[in-house]
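Please go through the protein record below and explain what the tokens say about the fold. Record follows.
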Amino acid sequence: MTVSKSITVLRTVQQVRQWRLQCILNRESVGLVPTMGALHAGHCSLVNESLQENDRTVVSIFVNPSQFAPHEDLDAYPRTVERDLELLERAFNQKSVDAVFIPKISEMYPSGITLDVNQQRGAFVTVHGCSEQLEGVTRPQFFRGVATVVTKLLNIVTPTRAYFGQKDAQQCVVIKNLVKDLIMDTEIRVLPTLRESNGLAMSSRNEYLSQEMKDRSSIIFKALSTGQAYYTQRGTKVAAKDIINLVKPIITSDPEFELEYLAISHPETLDDLEYVEPGVGAIISTAVKVPRESGDGKARLIDNVILN
């Protein structure tokens, strides 16, 4: 255990459990904000909510290898721990983060971990029914990795509440079902997506983009918002294909953008919807690949809006 100015940095599961035990003895509620680092204002909004709702707040920083496929950007994923700690120390006025959990891979995966799913050994968690569609089509191992690491974090910290952003809509559905079905005693709090001034959803992957590309990528949210406004203005049952036909041409108007998927899904099951009805609603979600600043490949951006 180390202390970075005002924040206690925990490196092992044992240290976290000792810290958590003291909270239990003091009858203090604990909020957990799980992250993969490269923190930005979106993360800070989750932390701020936890600070307001709990006696203690812990942030985890761990780039989880099991949610990356062998061909994906695990090695290139931004790692900015020192900057992250500085941000957590100065970003909040009245209360501050109490602890940051920064484990090694060996601490989180005692049996070891490889990116090849067929070669992995040990215990993993899969949430069937909401992991296979949308993001799961092109990233079949992704939500198995997410569900596994979130299960580990909730087991280690046993938080009163855990905080996630609506930007990762499918992840939030997977985690809610995980907690419900494994009967975990943690409340899952999902907060609205925080956006840059141009509307682009805040994401650690935005670090791959030039400012010019960030501005161009803001068309993704504009497109989704167009579909949202179309549905809201009608105030009645609307065909999903009509919304898709409005949104898709806006995103694909940039010839360098690669649309991976555009879907209108049930807000709880993520099943594809033929119609969107008031009272049930839907999620319009998309994944778009855009050129990186380095010119080396493309960055994959996801976003969504809620239809009520």
Observations:
- The chain is about 35% helix and 20% strand.
- The mean pLDDT is 95.
- The CA atoms of residues 195 and 201 lie 4 Å apart.
